[in-house]
Amino acid sequence: MKKVYFAILMIFTLSFISFGESDVPSEWAEEGIITIKSFDEIRESAFKNYKSNITREDFIYLSVRLYELLKDTTIQVDTSISFTDTNDIYALKGATVGITSGIGNGRFAPDILLTREQLAVLMVKTIQLAGIEFDSNATYTFMDDELFSDWARESIYLAKSNDIVNGVGNDKFNPQGYASIEHALIIANKILVKNGFVKDDNKIVLIDTKDTDNRYVIKYFEPKPQKGYYWGGYLLIPNEIKSKNMIVVANNPHSRGDTYDEMKEYAIEVLEYYHRYAIDTSSILFVPVFPRYNSTKETRALDGSMVYMSEYTLTTDELEYKDADIQTTIMIEEIRKLFAYDDIELDKDSVLLGYSSNGIFASRFSILQPDYVKCLVTGGHGWTILPIEEYNKKVLNYPFGLADVGNDKLIKREINMDKFSEIPMFVFIGKDDKNGFSYNPDEFEGIMNEFTPEEFIRVAEEVYRNINEQAEFILVDFGTHSSTPNIMYEEMIKFILSNTNRY
Hints:
By secondary structure, this protein is α/β, with parallel strands linked by helices. It has helices at about 25-40, 55-70, 90-95, 115-130, 150-160, 180-195, 260-280, 300-305, 310-315, 325-340, 355-370, 415-420, 455-465, 485-500, and strands at about 1-5, 205-210, 215-220, 235-240, 240, 245-250, 285-290, 350-355, 375-380, 390, 395, 425-430, 470-475. Residues about 1-20 and about 295-300 have low confidence and may be disordered.
């Protein structure tokens, strides 16, 4: 279980940084610590007990974050690696890339203190593993050189000649003395500054929106066209997070030509409607503020809607309306990075959830971007894409099938069918649902014998049984468009809980 402290999730500017009276760094370290803290890339808990000796656990966090920042990557843990004395994600990440493999016999020894020479060696190793080259022309010699361990001498002088470490005065390094937390922070800051690292103004900034009965908060982030997403998003964050998989639900604006502020209000409505799914699964809920209609193009909803992930949005050159699926994946990755700063690990693949209009988004996103889908829960929209190009000798173009989808076709996506075939799917529709079949019946000629929910279930089961054995299609007796979600709620929650990774 992860406790979320929302103050940590806020982004502070340099002018707001201050130190508590009882926890002040040494005067020589204060400026560097202010600088590295202003980058907003190191967790808040690292900035305390500055004069205390640094443990291996404290160090490996700092070292891994340094590696990830220099490489602009997120380390994926090698699942074959484990320690008998810690499950710390950063210890596992550090071992994955070779920063340290522990002290032997399967132990990491998180509480052991680091000496100054050990810190220098491990920091140099981190930088080298990140692909940074050193100037190796070391001409300086410390007065206590004879106290250096043979295995540490080269790294100490590499770090010194590259202005990463200094001595303790009187031309001495004090290799066997313990390193402090502020010492490690200053080294990390020097490395980042020397390699041109600056505060990332493109990073997601969470803005408080509202707090509801102490069970969750709602936060908003602005569009970042320079990062590749042209619409903002809302997050509903429970006070306790037990799931590593976010829930993603599309926005559901009501009419053509809504203003952005109106679309944001609709997104909050969606969050509040789906909040119980987040609470009952202890999951973060994400709603991108996409428009239902593209107001610059006069066309019917199924052709011009980002919420429907229409053919138009997958082929247009209008950047803000282009590639709703890819814009969503970029936002997912940015959200993952943001929460990783606070030791909340979110998996790449999410729960795609939706009913009616936003159910269409969930269904289509799942086949276009299956690598980002842990499971699919959707209903009430009357059609799920058939992952085939032809049915009953009828060519099925998107969004009915995949005949015109491919790198060399109209909709340029290479579908990962192997991954799609592994996605657990829970698709349902009420037997008395009329709204779910607002499509043009003529478009289904040759696909369904009758334009009914029963026939939709029959065709879907027939096609999917040979492609995805985990796909469930359910016809809900007595279910209308409005009543079916409540009838199926408990089943949906059970399905999500059984198909997500938990803390």
